Amino acid sequence: MSCVLGIETSCDETGVAIYDTTSGLRAHQLFSQIARHAEYGGVVPELASRDHLSKLAPMVAATLEEAGMSPEALDAVAYTAGPGLIGALLVGASFAAGYARALGKPLVPVHHMEAHLLAPMLDNEAPDFPFVALLVSGGHSMLVDVRALGDYEVIGNTLDDAAGEAFDKTAKLLGLPYPGGPALAALAADGDDARFALPRPMMSRPGIDFSFSGLKTAVLMCVRDLQGIARDASPRPGDTLAAQDRADLAASFQAATVDTLAGKCLRALDQTGRNTLVIAGGVGANRRLRETLRTRCEARNATVFYPPMQYCTDNGAMIALAGALRSDLATRDYTIRATPRWPIGTPMP
Ligand code: KG4
Ligand code: ZN
Questions:
Q1: What is the mean pLDDT of residues 260-281?
Q2: In terms of domains, do 43 and 136 share one?
Q3: Which ligand is nearest to the CA of 43?
Q4: How far are the Cα atoms of 119, 140, 272, 291, 342 from residue 308, in angstroms, in the given order?
Q5: Which atom of ligand 1 is nearest to the CA of 162?
Q6: Is residue 59 in some structural domain?
Q7: Does 341 map to a domain?
């Protein structure tokens, strides 16, 4: 298989791309629905599905035009089959199945998190197997032992919130707009990360699981203290805080989260005996996380790989790449298949 069309519609990004196993990424289109969901403070699933529906077909045409290709020249159609929002997934799955069937080409159902962890291979300097992957997005925080292509074991997981979710919820507390992660990171740049002594959850005991809900609560306590209200009172909107207080809280939260994530990554390398680390998922776009891990991995003679910045968050390029690499999953069964829950490393439910 050489030239694969990839379709991503699992959440609030419509992504379409064409990846060629000989020449690499040939075309890439992305439409973000962020503006549509911002007024609701989070993704509204029904609106997401409708938007994918109106954007997908024209974006596929535009991607083929960008690559200078006819649909017949494609070798397969890959799409995100899960996990994700079911309505949103079904838009991509229906389109992909119909398109592949009409062209008489194989269909490749791709696991969204597998695509995230393979995304660093879109870069010229790609990691070799085996490696440890830290997958940190809005819905997941996990450490995966990647033994080979398709051979994955989850060795650490979050007990409550995902890292991206913690960024988003904390950002909301500070009165920042959705999606909070990038906004909080920008605010943190002007803050003092040592002003608030926030916990490093689960670092004081052995193991590589995460927990972020306590950290979020600790920020909430600081907000109430700064607002001079009781610790069990409803906090006032975060934008009533003084600008420097907000920036210092953002910086302290980011430092605690990054410290915890980095600490667990190093433990995972120790536990598995690997010396290659891959960071993937939306939170992988966080510069502080990138810098911290680069320094700590260097000190340990381990190498860290990141996807190119624009392929950290959801995109079609990683789906096209995963589809091209996982040709073993290609099928001519055009049943429309999508699943909201699908543990990585297991067959599609
Ligand atoms: O992988 P992704 O695009 O979508 C999911 O599959 O969830 O990840 C989105 C998450 C959001 O929670 C967003 O706030 C977070 O990644 N994020 C960041 C940054 N950029 C995106 N978090 C921290 N710092 C960033 N620079
Ligand atoms: Zn994602």
A1: 96
A2: no
A3: 1
A4: 8, 20, 26, 14, 26
A5: 12
A6: yes
A7: no
